[in-house]
Amino acid sequence: MPLQSPQTGLLTCGDAQIFCETFGRGRPLLFIHGFPLNGQMWHAAALRLADRWRCIVPDLRGMGRSPATPSASIAEHAQDLAAVLDRLGQVGPVVVVGLSMGGIVAFEFFRRYRARVAGLVLTCTRANAESAEGIARREALAESVLQRGSPAAADVMIDAAFAPGAPMPLRVYWYQAMCGCAPLGVAAASRALATRADSYPTLATINVPTLVVAGDSDSITPPDTLREIQRGIAGASLVTIAGAGHLPPLERPDEYAAALRAFLSGFWE
Ligand code: MLT
Predict the structure, then answer these.
(1) Which of 54, 52, 131, 138 is nearest to 90 (CA)?
(2) Which of 29, 69, 127, 154 has the fewest CB neighbours in a 10 Å radius?
(3) Atom of ligand 1 nearest to the CA of 103
(4) From atom 4 of ligand 1, which residue's Cα is the shortest distance away?
(5) Over the Cα atoms of the chain, what is R_g?
(6) pTM for this prediction
(7) What is the Cα–Cα distance from 257 to 249, expressed in whole angstroms?
(8) Residues lining ligand 1, CB < 6 A?
């Protein structure tokens, strides 16, 4: 795997500034990270795929190096990503790879920009709208992050995010990354997850090649959740990564990249 430095930049996308990295050349893959993370969570996978594909890795508004705005709905994230592709001159379709909140944004991106989607990789995500109890929990988390800072979210997420055997340095690194997120961005993302649309009706409309990926030790979106998504999408396949929790691209990058390579090699070379 040749190490390469990414092309990076801050792109103006409507009212947002979106930090974006790209690795490699070839047909494009758009990677959408989870909550409360940033595009760096894709580096290990993108570096493994950059020999054949152009990996486009943005930070969603308010996360990573993209400055926060007071609101950041799932719809706004999808619009930002379309603008990112425009700014990069990526007029043709892309394969959209989303993890968790990134998968929720991928569903919205598909609904809005169907012609721009050549395929989907839905990793450790969910299709349901939030429950009343979940809305209250996410609103409370947003309030607590605004009062105490992003460690309030990191404390809730960190143990659930990784499989029990995940290496301590990986946990420590990502705990610190979560703590370093802008509180305004984390609160807005928590509220975006609370108000997300029901994507179950979308599943039957998905008519592009789709890979669904689960982590066998994921306690946030357990394998059954992903199996249900796979069953709802005609022709979708499911790969379950052994020894991974909610973050297979970080926990098992070789296996995760191999699953994407096998999937993409069928239609996107
Ligand atoms: C994520 O990884 O994006 C979050 O776990 C989403 C969620 O809490 O549902």
Answers:
(1) 54
(2) 69
(3) 3
(4) 35
(5) 17
(6) 0.97
(7) 7
(8) 34-35, 100-101, 193, 220, 246
